Amino acid sequence: MMRRLVRLTGTLMIVAGVGTLAWALLVWQWQDPFTAIYTHFKQRELASAYAKRFDAFRLPAAAAAPSLAAERRTVAREARRYRLTSHRGEALGRMRIPRLGLNLILVDGTDHESLKRGPGRYAGALQDLTGVTGTPPPDFMPGEGQLVYVAGHRTTYLAPFSHIDRLRPGDPVTVELPYATFEYRISSTRIVPATDLASLKSHGREVLVLQACHPRFFASHRYLAYARPVRIIPRGGAPFAPPATEAVAAAKSSG
Fold it and tell me: Does 228 fall in a domain?
């Protein structure tokens, strides 16, 4: 009887050990499947909510032949209006990153509850950055000509930025919003301490920063991927290149 109990206990311990190892490998190679189910369900809800926001969004009447400068001002004005009427946890737009196989609804906010639903745009609340003190990073929307900061999980809740370290310069990132679609290209990446806010300071030009904890399963550092805008497609308007992109193109053609 005692030997049978010992054998049974040993077998159960082996099964438990194998199961734990298999679970760890699953999460390491892919993601936590249980939280992924939750986020998948929330993404379906967000997609429906975003479709309604998109349809309800109304642009001001445009001039018959608006100038490029007027188009830029309109995009910036509508970006600010959209930011001020958006709320924490609400569906903002759709983000696509082919290199990561990502096509998800972008959420407003980087607090814990918001990031459970998908990648989130930082909306100016310093408490949404764990363990960080000081001056909060900027709160801007694509099109306002400033730094836009988007965070995402690496191992849980669909792990949108699980493989953020695979991004390479030139990789496209697209953010669709009700007032315009923004096309970016990855320009650089870096790893900084989790408390480093200087890397998220806006310098008066449009840049998208994607952020995830680094290394995976830890939060001591942040992996940052910077992306520059290459084309803006206003809703109902003609596409145009951001000023910085135009300057670079002009310099190359003159050289």
Answer: yes
**pLDDT per position as a tens digit, 141-196:** 999 999 999 999 999 999 999 999 999 999 999 999 999 999 999 999 999 998 88
Tell me, yes or no, if the pTM score tops 0.70: yes
The whole-number pLDDT of residue 47 equals 98
Q: What is the pLDDT of residues 64-105, one digit of tens each?
A: 667 888 899 999 999 999 999 999 999 999 999 999 999 999
Burial letters 232-251, b for 16+ CB under 10 A, else e: bbbbebeebbbeebeeeeee
CATH number at residue 103: 2.40.260.10
Torsion of CA 93, 173, 207, 119, to 10 degrees: 50
CB 195 within 8 A of CB 126: no
- 190 and 224 Cβ atoms separated by less than 8 Å: yes
> Which SS3 state, helix, strand or coil, does residue 127 take?
helix
DSSP string, 165-202: GG--TT-EEEEE-SSEEEEEEEEEEEEEETT--GGG--
Residue-range definition of the domain harbouring residue 36: 20-58+67-254
Residue 3 belongs to a domain: no
Total domains present in the chain: 1
What integer is the mean pLDDT of 14-35? 50
Q: Tell me whether residue 5 is in a domain.
A: no
* Cβ atoms within 10 Å of 90's Cβ, excluding its own: 17
Q: Which residues are registered as beta bridge partners of 213?
A: 222
For strands 147-151 and 207-214, give the pairing: parallel
- 2 in a structural domain: no
